[in-house]
């Protein structure tokens, strides 16, 4: 056997000799950031072992090892509300309901008084499945790598999180868990499978066919949710492996099935899910934007937590940054990396092909000259010298790939419908991440075209709102299920000239 001692707290963890240090720390409930699920690629799981900085995922435990953790879990910025249309609620004599939005990154829960429809309390947290990977594919990979235990471990992580949030909201409102009549859940397809303990591996391999798409209704206690014996769990329906119940909920909340004109709905995150309503037809697609827009795969990237840079301005007097919680900067989140790329383009430090300009092309008296430095042969932008934060050429390329993916999905849907950008009446931006993106960043980086800048409408957490509407109305449940059946999914890779569309969509706009 071996032993790990946590330097800051003195906590002792006994493990097998030769055990993986990251797995040992996570198993003991110690926070270690590990976006790549222990693959040694992201460089974020650093710890100090006897004064030497190491990646915990590549370190084995032998004998007695003293470990100093280098990061603390920070308070995150989570969106809990969204646009709510008028609708007719069912009549209830009493009782309570729960609505849950399970995202890959965050989970949001609300306690509802069924008689009044009022939200009495809400809670939010980072999805505990982050220990198994920060995106759906790394979590699916975990199921592949741990066929005996992976499905159960991922289910237990989210169910335990839900039980903790149920206790929190019930205690806050003075409600007994046994008084909960129904729990309605909207989630992406992978998260829904993992919640129900259903094998999600088929979502990660061609032909990307989920085990189920239809709405599910069962007793909550069947999957370990701690509520009443008869508490019903309702899971909203899905369209495909990458258009889940969260997007169906959003399309319903935005009343896209009733739109007469041309309306685009987009949820921007690790995946960019897009729905287009045109001439009464609903078409949708999903594009793999990657985790860069949520602060991951970025050299100084982090989630939207305290100390994350969320806005940047490049001026003649220097670089100005705004951080979440007005804390000292410790990294940059998704909205921040978009803001800085937009500024790099605006000031000409990055060209429209995504490459940094050569420092020698700038005069020494140019205010931009000291902002660029060479790291070996590679150019990088000095974002915050005191905090040792930089934007590298690789970071710009990550944003460029995400921009290409989202814009190409946008263009492909419009091409299929036979309409142009100018024909769009409205573009609705949904989701946790989208809510924090100003139009200047979306258009300035070219994720969305200039033609829609004045047509943007932010609808917030439409996934949770959709779950609220199904909770409060059996008619809405029926209509949401009918809507999911009507949504026509388009596989981008199979569309005509998609590679050309993607390549053109990678080009940044000129200022």
UniProtKB/TrEMBL annotation:
<dbReference type="InterPro" id="IPR036010">
    <property type="entry name" value="2Fe-2S_ferredoxin-like_sf"/>
</dbReference>
<dbReference type="InterPro" id="IPR052911">
    <property type="entry name" value="Corrinoid_activation_enz"/>
</dbReference>
<dbReference type="Pfam" id="PF00111">
    <property type="entry name" value="Fer2"/>
</dbReference>
<dbReference type="Pfam" id="PF14574">
    <property type="entry name" value="RACo_C_ter"/>
</dbReference>
<dbReference type="InterPro" id="IPR027980">
    <property type="entry name" value="RACo_C"/>
</dbReference>
<keyword id="KW-0067">ATP-binding</keyword>
<dbReference type="Pfam" id="PF17651">
    <property type="entry name" value="Raco_middle"/>
</dbReference>
<keyword id="KW-0547">Nucleotide-binding</keyword>
<dbReference type="GO" id="GO:0051536">
    <property type="term" value="F:iron-sulfur cluster binding"/>
</dbReference>
<dbReference type="GO" id="GO:0005524">
    <property type="term" value="F:ATP binding"/>
</dbReference>
<dbReference type="InterPro" id="IPR043129">
    <property type="entry name" value="ATPase_NBD"/>
</dbReference>
<dbReference type="InterPro" id="IPR042259">
    <property type="entry name" value="Raco-like_middle_sf"/>
</dbReference>
<dbReference type="InterPro" id="IPR012675">
    <property type="entry name" value="Beta-grasp_dom_sf"/>
</dbReference>
<dbReference type="InterPro" id="IPR001041">
    <property type="entry name" value="2Fe-2S_ferredoxin-type"/>
</dbReference>
<feature type="domain" description="2Fe-2S ferredoxin-type">
    <location>
        <begin position="2"/>
        <end position="73"/>
    </location>
</feature>
<dbReference type="InterPro" id="IPR041414">
    <property type="entry name" value="Raco-like_middle"/>
</dbReference>
<protein>
    <submittedName>
        <fullName>ATP-binding protein</fullName>
    </submittedName>
</protein>
């Amino acid at each position: 056997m071996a032993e790990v001692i946590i330097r800051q707290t003195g906590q002792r963890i006994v493990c097998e000799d030769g055990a993986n240090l990251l797995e040992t720390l996570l198993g003991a409930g110690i926070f270690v950031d590990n976006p790549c699920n222990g693959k040694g690629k992201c460089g974020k799981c650093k710890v100090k072992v006897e004064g030497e900085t190491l990646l915990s995922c590549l370190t084995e435990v032998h004998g007695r090892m003293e470990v100093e953790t280098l990061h603390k879990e920070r308070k995150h910025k989570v969106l809990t509300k969204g646009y709510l249309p008028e609708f007719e609620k069912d009549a209830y004599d009493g009782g309570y309901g729960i609505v849950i939005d399970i995202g890959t990154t965050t989970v949001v829960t609300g306690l509802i008084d069924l008689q009044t429809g009022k939200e009495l309390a809400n809670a939010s947290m980072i999805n505990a499945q982050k220990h198994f990977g920060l995106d759906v594919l790394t979590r699916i990979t975990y199921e592949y790598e741990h066929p005996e235990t992976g499905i159960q471990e991922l289910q237990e992580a989210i169910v335990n999180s839900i039980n903790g949030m149920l206790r929190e909201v019930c205690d806050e409102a003075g409600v007994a868990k046994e008084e909960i009549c129904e729990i309605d859940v909207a989630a992406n397809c992978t998260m829904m499978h993992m919640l129900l303990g259903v094998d999600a591996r088929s979502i990660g391999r061609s032909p990307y066919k989920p085990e189920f798409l239809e709405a599910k209704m069962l007793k909550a206690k069947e999957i370990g949710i701690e509520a009443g014996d008869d508490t019903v769990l309702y899971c909203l329906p899905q369209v495909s492996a990458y258009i889940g119940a969260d997007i169906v909920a959003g399309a319903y909340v935005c009343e896209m099935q009733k739109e007469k004109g041309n309306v685009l709905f987009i949820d921007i995150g690790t995946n960019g899910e897009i729905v287009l309503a045109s001439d009464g037809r609903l078409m949708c697609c999903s594009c793999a934007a990657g985790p860069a827009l949520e602060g991951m795969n970025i050299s100084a990237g982090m989630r939207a937590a305290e100390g994350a840079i969320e806005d940047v301005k490049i001026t003649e007097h220097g670089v100005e940054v705004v951080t979440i919680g007005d804390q000292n900067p410790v990294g940059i989140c998704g909205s921040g990396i978009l803001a800085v790329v937009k500024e790099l383009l605006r000031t000409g430090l990055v060209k429209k092909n995504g490459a940094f300009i050569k420092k020698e092309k700038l005069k020494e008296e140019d205010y931009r000259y000291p902002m660029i430095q060479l790291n070996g042969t590679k150019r990088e932008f000095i974002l915050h010298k005191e905090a040792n934060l930089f934007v590298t050429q690789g970071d710009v390329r990550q944003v460029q790939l995400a921009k290409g993916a989202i814009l190409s999905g946008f263009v492909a849907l419009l091409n299929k419908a036979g309409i142009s950008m100018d024909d769009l009446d409205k573009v609705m931006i949904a989701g946790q991440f989208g809510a924090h993106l100003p139009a200047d960043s979306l258009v300035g980086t070219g994720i969305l075209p200039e033609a829609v800048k004045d047509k943007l409408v932010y609808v917030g957490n439409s996934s949770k709102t959709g779950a609220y509407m199904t909770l409060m109305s059996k008619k809405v449940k029926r209509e949401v299920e009918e809507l999911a059946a009507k949504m026509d999914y388009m596989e981008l890779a199979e569309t005509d000239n998609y590679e050309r569309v993607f390549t053109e969509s990678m080009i940044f706009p000129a200022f």
